[in-house]
Amino acid sequence: MDRTDMRQDPSADDLAWLLDACAAITDQPIDADANLFEQGLTSLGVVRLSGAIQRRHGLRLGAVDLYDHPTVTQLSVLIASRKESRV
Predict the structure, then answer these.
(1) Using one digit for the tens of pLDDT, what is the confidence trace for 9-25?
(2) How far apart are CA 58 and CA 56, in angstroms?
(3) Which of 40, 48, 44 is nearest to 70 (CA)?
């Protein structure tokens, strides 16, 4: 169940970075609104993506977060929400 507040607005830079990061991990272009797992994200990719998010944003997202927010759009909203709640 997605409990992310969809009113959060991720920055264009964060969304572009996340698209690039996912494309680099899956080695293919990514559709922001399509399921990442259907676009080639594997369990190893989840670990790599979680680490990249932690390095860039200082946020620890687990595998469950990625499975609950399986698109780049949903994931970027989650990241924006978590960053906002830290302030």
Answers:
(1) 678 889 999 999 999 99
(2) 6
(3) 40
To 5 degrees, how large is the angle CA 68–CA 3–CA 82?
Answer: 85
Instruction: Check: pTM over 0.90? Answer yes or no.
Output: no
For 48, half-sphere exposure in the C-beta direction (CA atoms, 13 angstrom radius) is 13
**39, 26 in Cβ contact below 8 A?**
yes
Integer Cα distance of 73 and 70 in angstroms: 9
Secondary structure (H, E, C), 62-84: CHHHHHHCCCHHHHHHHHHHHHH
